[in-house]
Design brief:
The chain is mostly helical and about 80 residues long. The longest helix has about 50 residues. The two termini are about 40 Å apart.
Amino acid sequence: MEDANEMLAQQQQELERIRNKRVRHTNTEGIRKILNVAFLAIALTGVVLYFMYPDKHLLGMIVIGIGMVVKIVEFFIRIML
């Protein structure tokens, strides 16, 4: 009987841990969405600069690089939190 109670307590602790993890992820969803939209806008701007203006290749690559940094930040927020 004690073994069953211990197993039930362990299962409840695991369930609580999973619920807490889900709640923590929902707190960062808004930040991640904003960073994703920013990444898309920055990347699109960089691509337009790169292809539409032949003399602006370096600027286009720099803007795309900034977009990549924003995406990496979003990635780490998703993984770490």
